């Protein structure tokens, strides 16, 4: 066989081998690629609570609790209230991410706010809008040191919702995001508050927006 033909044959075999290696690499890489699936999302713009149940000091609320704040619909404004959401029939997965905007309205003075997942308390925070009173956030309560009011806020330049409606810094907004191991076929999300001005939402309240729950699997 001529030398030129042998070289062409070797180049062809090298190219074929390289192509096979590329295919194998892509197959193995994509096999282990993390998959993110949004299983619940609500920006409340359509005034639809989408399965969220609201428990107030006066019992379960039957009316829609979506109101406009700063010209934007939010779920709120709550005081000593719990919201619950159950997502059922989940496929196999290994973790979950929960994210949302949390609005702390008006007169918070180291008052409590709690996240609960699947009936278990996940984290307990405290928040302050009063610059003379410290808060635990971004630490959980009794975990590390306290911080100045409004620490790690996404924005502090929002008016109050009621009592401090004339104050340009009466509301503080935080971006909350939590990722944790989870493999149950259902997921129960809950958050609530406790503290001063019991059942007086004009004095102290909270709201959420852009709630998203994402399932993570390989």
Kindly describe this structure.
- Residues 3-8 and 20-31 have low confidence and may be disordered.
- The longest helix has 29 residues, at 3-31.
- The protein has 218 residues and is mainly beta.
- It has one helix spanning 3-31; strands at residues 35-42, 53-56, 59-60, 66-69, 72-78, 82-87, 95-106, 109-117, 120-128, 155-158, 171-181, 187-194, 204-217.
- Strands 1, 4, 5, 7, 10, 11 and 13 form a 7-stranded antiparallel beta sheet that branches.
- It is 13% helix and 45% strand.
- The chain folds into 2 domains: 1-33; 35-217, Jelly Rolls, CATH 2.60.120.
- Strand 4 and strand 5 (72-78) form a beta hairpin.
- It is globular.
- The protein has 1 helix and 13 strands, in the order αβββββββββββββ.
Structural class based on helices, strands and sheet pairing: mainly beta
Radius of gyration: 25 Å
CATH class call of the largest domain: Mainly Beta
Mean pLDDT: 89
Which residues form runs of ≥5 with pLDDT under 50? Answer: 3-8, 20-31
Shape: globular
Count the DSSP helices: 1
| Cα distance spanning the termini | 51 Å
CATH superfamily of the largest domain: Galactose-binding domain-like
Q: What amount of the residues lies in strands?
A: 35-45%
CATH architect. name of the largest domain? Sandwich
Total domain modules: 2
Query: Largest beta sheet, briefly?
Result: 7 strands, antiparallel
Helix and strand run: HEEEEEEEEEEEEE
Counted beta strands: 13
């Amino acid at each position: 066989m001529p030398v030129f033909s042998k070289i062409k044959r070797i180049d062809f075999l090298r190219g074929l081998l390289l192509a096979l290696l590329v295919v194998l690499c892509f197959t193995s890489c994509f096999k282990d690629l993390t998959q993110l699936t949004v299983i619940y999302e609500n920006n409340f713009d359509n005034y639809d609570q989408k399965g969220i149940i609201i428990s107030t000091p006066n019992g379960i609320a039957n009316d829609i609790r979506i109101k406009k704040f700063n010209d934007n619909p939010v779920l709120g404004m709550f005081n000593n209230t719990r919201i619950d959401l159950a997502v059922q029939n989940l496929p196999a997965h290994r973790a979950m991410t929960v994210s949302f905007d949390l609005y702390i309205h008006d007169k918070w003075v180291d008052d409590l706010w709690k996240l609960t997942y699947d009936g278990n308390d996940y984290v307990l925070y405290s928040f302050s809008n009063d610059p003379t009173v410290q808060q635990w956030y971004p630490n959980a309560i009794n975990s590390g040191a306290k911080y100045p009011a409004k620490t790690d806020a996404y924005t502090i330049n929002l008016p109050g919702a009621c009592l401090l409606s004339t104050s340009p810094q009466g509301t503080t907004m935080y971006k909350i995001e939590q990722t944790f191991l989870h493999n149950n076929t259902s997921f129960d999300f809950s958050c609530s508050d406790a503290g001063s001005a019991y059942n007086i939402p004009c004095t102290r309240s909270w709201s959420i927006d852009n709630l998203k729950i994402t399932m993570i699997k390989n």
